Amino acid sequence: MPRRLKPRSNVIDLVLDFLARLLVQFQSPALAFLIGGMLLAAARSKLEIPDAIYKFCVFMLLMRIGLEGGLEIREAELVDMLLPAILAMVIGCGIVLLGRVVLAALPGVKVEDALATAGLFGAVSASTLAAAMVMLEEQEVFYEAWVPALYPFMDVPALIVAIVLANVYFAKKENGARTKVRIWPIVRDSLRGSALSALLLGLALGLFTHPQIVYEGFYDPLFRGLLSVLMLIMGMEAYTRLNELRKVAHWYAVYAAAAPLAHGLIAFGLGYVAHILTGFSPGGVVLLAVMAGSSSDISGPPTLRAGIPSANPSAYVGSSTSVGTPIAIAVGIPLYIALAQAVFGL
User: Fold this and answer.
1) Number of independent structural domains in the chain
2) Residue 321 maps to a domain
């Protein structure tokens, strides 16, 4: 009898160990500021942080991520980046296609709203990515510094696929036949967005110049402090956006709650395959999952507003900001780190 109970005991020990690891992740300062912002908004606090400060924080975070990624890419073997970059593109496009099938099939959901929502969830949140990087550093989990540079490989294809599918849908609806959709204007508008512009600028400076002094003396020391301000702002906005979400079909709330974790776990599995094939680091697997589980809060909304003007912003921005982003940060990041620690034996 004792021998039969032993495997069960091992399973219980593994589950308890995983839950203990997960609990530790919730003690991160980034999560504390996010929850604090939500509590302030719920208490109807009159605290206001100017939009200019929000934009400055986002710019600084993306520049820091870009500079670090560019410096690391210059020293890295580009072959090591190939498979993760391909996976990032596949994941971004796959999330949009999956959202098109699942969300548009639900009652009360319009196709254009479904595509805009799926596009936003397929794109990447810079703030969520930055929060994950800080939490990995706190837990001393290694990741290749070029991994955040996978951001545009997932972000841009997701937005392009969503807009192209929407245009094809409208063309079929109006003319009964497919018409040509110009891809380059969509790519150009995506790359010109404030988020990708800052990230790509940082990457270029890190690759082709020697910005180490500026990086170490200015951008890196401010990274954590600015992230805490950004998390506070996002927490306040997330609670405020709940009113917008109530105006549309409740299926958006269900999708926004389930999609971040589903997308992140799929990406975690694909990242694990890359780990086996190429030695992709555990931290890299976590960041890939975080990017997949996030939803764009900077570049996505204006791009989709321009590309799918008939879509309802209350649906895709409301579901992303009020539900998707808090779950991606408060639940997703701790979950993937704890899962990596259990799977990789960290």
Assistant:
1) 1
2) yes
Count how many Cα atoms sit within 13 Å of the Cα of residue 169 in the half-sphere of its side chain.
19
pLDDT at 113 over 60: yes
Max mean pLDDT range (178-192, 218-232, 260-274): 260-274
Expressed as residue numbers, the domain containing 111 is 49-176+186-344
What single DSSP character describes residue 238? H
Residue 25, domain member (yes or no) = no
For 4, which DSSP code? H
Task: Please give the Cα distance from 63 to 68 (Å, whole number).
Answer: 8
d(CA 266, CA 122): 13
Which tens digits make up the pLDDT trace of 153-193? 898 889 889 988 888 887 777 665 555 667 777 677 767 77
Supply the CATH number for residue 276's domain.
Answer: 1.20.1530
Position 338: which residue type? A
By 3-state DSSP, what share of the chain in percent is helix, strand and coil, each rounded to 5? 80, 0, 20
Residue 279 lies in a domain: yes
Rounded CA gap, 206 and 40, in Å?
A: 38
Instruction: Decide if pLDDT at 199 tops 70.
Output: yes
As a whole number of angstroms, the distance between CA 239 and CA 230 comes to 15
